[in-house]
Specification:
about 280 residues, Aminopeptidase, two-stranded parallel sheet, about 15% strand
């Protein structure tokens, strides 16, 4: 009896090892059939033994065929390349769509529309808009040049974004003295039902474009600039801390310094593939 039990255990081990190698629902069914047949051989009356032996032979043949010729593992198809177009400065219509996305996300907890448009007239690089292959605006990042005192008030929580006025926002020439940038938000329009892959691509492409604008159009030397951003969501806060190297100065408010050289290094190490984004800066 002990010898029979050892043989049974050995048989079952081989069956299930084959199932693990082959994988799939059919193989599990075959394994169950073989195990059931073996139980029938051991514990059924004599008159049913011949039927059970025939079943176990059939199951064994099928198991061996599956093990010797396993199916290729299923490999999910790679997501298609998501190509984004970012033209800087953006068109007035695209600016309106970006403001619409901000209104949908943040309501009135944002810089007033008239202030954004007025500043965009003075600094056309302030709102960067991404469009998909169909020409739809899928996301934006806003980049405001502010007075150093206004930036610190934002960082320390003494001032809210929606309280910023035209006095706080300055042109490029004055910004090269103040050296302070406020990144208001990076947002992707979830109303378009983008996949997680597409959404992630757009976010990284907008950050990449933001870095290019700073290095090519805003910073004129290698001095350190102060940058402030607000993490509105857990994902946004994680991106600021882990990917972009910001430190939290107050609740949800992040700050760091960076130079043009640091931005260039960041762009070289960016996960964005040049073939996936078409950036035109004029």
């Amino acid at each position: 009896m002990a010898m029979m039990m050892r043989q049974t255990q050995t048989y079952l081990n081989r069956v299930f090892a084959g199932v693990r190698d082959a994988g799939g629902y059919l193989d599990r069914i075959l394994a169950a059939a073989a195990a059931t047949s073996l139980i029938l051989v051991l514990f059924t009356p004599k008159q049913f033994t011949d039927i059970a032996q025939a079943l176990i032979v059939i199951a064994l043949v099928l198991i061996v065929a599956v093990i010797r010729h396993p199916r290729k593992p299923h490999v999910p198809p790679m997501p298609r390349t998501w190509v984004t177009t970012i033209a800087i400065p953006c068109l007035p219509a695209d600016l309106d769509k970006a403001i619409g996305i901000a209104r949908w996300y943040f309501g009135e907890d944002r810089i007033p529309t008239q202030v954004v448009k007025s500043f965009h007239d003075r600094c056309p690089y302030s709102v960067i808009v991404a469009k998909n292959e169909q020409g739809e605006v899928v996301g934006y990042v806003d980049l405001f040049l502010v007075r150093a005192e206004s930036l610190m008030a934002l960082v320390e929580g003494r001032q809210r974004e929606e309280d910023l006025t035209e006095r706080d926002l300055i042109g490029i020439d004055e910004a090269r003295v103040e050296k302070a940038i406020y990144v208001g938000s990076i947002a992707v329009d979830d109303r378009l039902k983008l996949s997680d892959y597409e959404r992630s691509k757009v976010v990284h492409q907008l950050i990449y474009a933001c870095g290019q604008v700073c290095a090519k159009k805003i910073m004129d030397n290698n001095d350190q600039w102060q940058v402030c951003a607000i993490g509105y969501t857990k994902a946004g806060a994680l991106l600021l801390r882990e990917r972009l190297g910001f430190g939290e100065r107050a609740a949800g408010r992040y700050w760091r310094t960076i130079s043009r050289h640091g931005i260039s290094r960041f762009l070289r190490n960016s996960p964005v593939a040049p073939a996936e984004v078409k950036i035109r800066i004029s």
